[in-house]
Amino acid sequence: MQNVLHTEIMAALKPFGVIDRGQKAANLHMVRESKMPAVLTENLFIDVAADAAKLKRQEVINALITGLSWGSINT
Fold first, then answer.
1. What is the mean pLDDT of residues 5-23?
2. How far is Cα 68 from Cα 41, in angstroms, rounded to an integer?
3. What's this model's pTM, rounded to 2 decimal places?
4. Catalytic residue check, 42
């Protein structure tokens, strides 16, 4: 699930020059204790000026939505 979501999100964000920071794995309580399959996504960072500027653009938000949607459909 993580691989598919990551691939779809990054493909949707590619036109906006978003840096692929890779996939991480951790033993997170909210994911580990979920009663259903779960993935935590972090999509850009508001404390990074370039990321914050991108997050103010509706087309970037739409790309995130598209990537998450396609990733969810394809898992």
1. 96
2. 9
3. 0.88
4. yes
